[in-house]
Amino acid sequence: MTLVTFNESPLFKHNHSKFRLSSGSASAGRTRLLGERFLRILIFVMLGASLAGARDIAVVSNKSNAVSAIAIPDLIKLCKAQTAHWPDGKPVTFVMRLPTSPEMKMVLDKVYGMSQSEVTTLIVSANHGRTNHPAIMVVATDEDLVNQVASTPGAVGVVDVYSINSSVAVVKIGGKLPLEPGYLLHGN
Predict the structure, then answer these.
(1) How confident is the model at residue 43 (pLDDT cuts 50, 70, 90)?
(2) Nearest of 76, 81, 123, 82 to residue 99 by alpha carbon
(3) What is the C-alpha separation between 170 and 67, in angstroms, rounded?
(4) pLDDT tens, 62-79?
(5) Which side of the chain, N or C, has fewer Cβ within a 10 Å radius?
């Protein structure tokens, strides 16, 4: 008589699938391993999503504007349409994305200190009676924003730093450029 021993559970073929006979502890180990893998993937996805949401927003200006830096209180006045003209007499137009867009959440919190509906109401009242040259323009995309600022004398806007191109000038806020430590509109 020949005695056969297996170091591993034997494999049985059935419909081209492999099944292993397993003891309770091996099954629990595999379940734990799958759980750990799932947890690692979940953490990776959540971390990636939070980093994707961490955006740095830049203030950009029409190249014909003489502004290269702005103090935080002055930025708030620009965003709220409380500054009508630049020192050289050009009318100010503030260009922004829709207040309901996720990209604007940080600006609403840090600059406006208002809810989406309050900012929408502010835009309507700021533009009342200014059909030729609105105080605040709302655009759909960052590309539209950059193009609008580049083509409107006196315009400034807030845009994702990775959407900036050479057609606009980046404005310092409180003496800082985007991506510098201490920059006001730094994501997360």
Answers:
(1) low
(2) 123
(3) 9
(4) 999 989 999 999 999 999
(5) N
